[in-house]
Amino acid sequence: MTTQYCTFELGSLLLGVKAQSVQEVIRTQLVTPVPLAADFVRGLMNLRGQIVLVVDLRARLGSPQQESSPKPLNVLVHTSVGLVSMQADRIGDVLEIDEEQIDAVPDTLQGRAREVLAGALRLPERLLLLLEPERIAVG
Q1: Are 133 and 79 in contact (CB under 8 A)?
Q2: What confidence score (pLDDT) does residue 68 get?
Q3: Of 53, 95, 107, 126, which one is least surrounded by beta carbons within 10 A?
């Protein structure tokens, strides 16, 4: 069985999320910080009257902090707690992926990244890390 995945880049990482969970991709919005929130929560944004949680994926994945794109994009995904925005540097392609080709998250990967990854797929030039949207906002 094949599934479509939307891909996007965050620094040198190529990440993907099931296309059915993506609502839209939008340009940078004003984000209001939330005091005492988890370190990976950038804040909240108002999207046409709906309050959306904005997650800093670099912090959520435990990646070294680096300068993000001057105009990051927001990938909005549906979760059981509502819409969540994940900031990305660049948007990639929509890939049709055979579920049998997806590898499990390696046991050697520990920490925050392991908490939010659903699997990995070896592509000809690089590795595609597949995110589980339901785990992105939970910390």
Answers
A1: yes
A2: 57
A3: 107
Burial (CB count within 10 angstroms: exposed 0-12, middle 13-18, buried 19+), residue 75: buried
* Residue 74 and residue 87 in contact, taking contact as beta carbons nearer than 8 Å: yes
Q: Is residue 135 a contact partner of residue 116, using CB atoms and an 8 Å limit?
A: yes
Helix %, strand %, coil % for the chain, to 5? 15, 50, 35
State how far the Cα of 98 lies from the Cα of 54, in Å rounded to an integer: 30
Looking at residue 65, its pLDDT comes to: 66
Cβ pair 21, 77 in contact under 8 A: yes
- Residues in the chain, total: 139
Q: Which residue in 104, 106, 90 sits closest to 6, CA to CA?
A: 90
Residue 70: band (very low, low, confident or very high) from pLDDT cuts 50, 70, 90: low
Please name each of the domains of the chain with its CATH number.
22-136 (2.40.50.180)
pTM of the model: 0.89
